Amino acid sequence: MIERGLERAETQAVILAKNLQDKEAVLPRTWENGQLKTTTYSGWVSGFFPGVLWMLYGETGRQDFRDFAEEFTARVEPARKLTNTHDLGFMLMSSFGQGYRLTGNPHYLEVIHEGTDSLLTRWNPSLGVMMSWNPNGKWKYPVIIDNMMNLEMLCFCSRTFGDIRYEDIAITHSKTTIKNHFREDASTWHVVSYDPEIGGVQVKNTSQGYSDDSAWARGQSWGLYGYTMMYRETHDKAFLEQAIKIARFLRDHPNLPSDKVPCWDYDAPGAPNTQRDASSAAIMASALIELSQLDPDAEAAGWLDLAIMQLRTLTSSEYLAEPGEQGGFILKHSVGSLPGKSEVDVPLSYADYYYIEALLRLKKLVGSDHTI
User: Fold this and answer.
1) I need a labelling partner for 312 at 20 to 30 A (CA). Which of 23, 109, 197, 209 fits?
2) Terminal alpha carbon distance of the chain
3) Is there a catalytic annotation at residue 87?
């Protein structure tokens, strides 16, 4: 299963890279209505395809993957100076972070460092969180659960540069998010807006989920991944406990389909027999594989079993694109924003990224000479 997924990823990634080689400064976003849709460095998904290429280079050692990875990573570089977005961790760690891990290129490290300082312009110490989206008529200081995914870059900088300030901010943001983002059952609101004037929560809503009180699937996966990562980085037991609570919520949810690929929102009308979201499954599987190695209790084996079930489904013909299909994207059937009627039942670059990451994590775990 692992080899089938990785081999298909290699084939598709080369096709996608060649499709974009002559289109300067753009990066892939999705394939929709028979057309390749792209973004620039400023789009939150800009770093994922370079990350796919880096991971495949690390796996195969092929020079063409390294050449493509360097080319597309360079297209993301202007993001290092952005201060109008919280997504710099997504954009830079998936591209420059993967590149630095594999090459040790000091320039890549410089980009990550400057990008992290750009991200910290959105930090509010009195509220204890970093702003996600910019204020608007509805939200004074919106923070989305997705923001947990940008904290790994802060932890990386603390470890690399010996500056504990970055990690302290990541820890504080994570603990504030536990306090305000999660319901009793460990499901999460998508958006929590704060009021800087009163120093507390203004309102709790959704943007991409079914309703303010529903469990938007990708948001649940972001939370699971984020707290698993924060425990790995800090060894703070509060983060392990939170990750396990979220994992239990997802594992035991009556609307999790039998093949373990979530529908777009666990509370959507018709769930679980409604539009699936492969991206939520890929993120969840990657997180569960890591959680299975961090959780000291007997449940750990179950996290791994669940992840393997998800990857088996994603590697089936139902979800894995055929060679040359959908412009070179790897997984089918993801959802960007169903309420926004945007990117519904299409491939998405981040679904591919976390799918490959999950396969490689699993391969490392079982050994290349083992089968599952």
Assistant:
1) 209
2) 8
3) yes
What Rg do the C-alpha atoms of the chain give, in angstroms?
Answer: 19
- What residue has token string 């591209």? 95
Cβ count within 10 A of residue 232: 17
Per-residue pLDDT, averaged over 178-201, amounts to: 97
Q: Which residue out of 117, 146, 213, 267 is catalytically annotated?
A: 146
**Segment 115-167, tens digit of pLDDT:** 999 999 999 999 999 999 999 999 999 999 999 999 999 999 999 999 999 99
User: Please, are residues 169 and 154 in contact by the beta-carbon 8 Å criterion?
Assistant: yes
Residue type, 49: F
User: What domain range is 29 assigned to?
Assistant: 2-366
Check 67, 87, 185, 277 and give the catalytic one: 87
Residue 372, in any domain of the structure: no
Whether residue 247 is contained in a domain is answered as yes
Q: Which two tokens stand for residue 69?
A: 């990875």
**Residue 348, domain CATH:** 1.50.10.10
The sign of the dihedral angle between the CA atoms of 25, 322, 284, 271 is positive
How much is the pLDDT for 367?
80
Cβ proximity of 239 and 287 under 8 Å: no
pLDDT band at 201 (very low <50, low <70, confident <90, very high): very high
pLDDT above 90 (res 248):
yes
Whether 146 is catalytic: yes
DSSP string computed for 180-199: HHB-TTS-B-SEEEEETTTT
Question: Domain count of the chain?
Answer: 1
For residue 86, give the 3-state DSSP assignment: coil
Q: What average pLDDT is seen over the chain?
A: 97
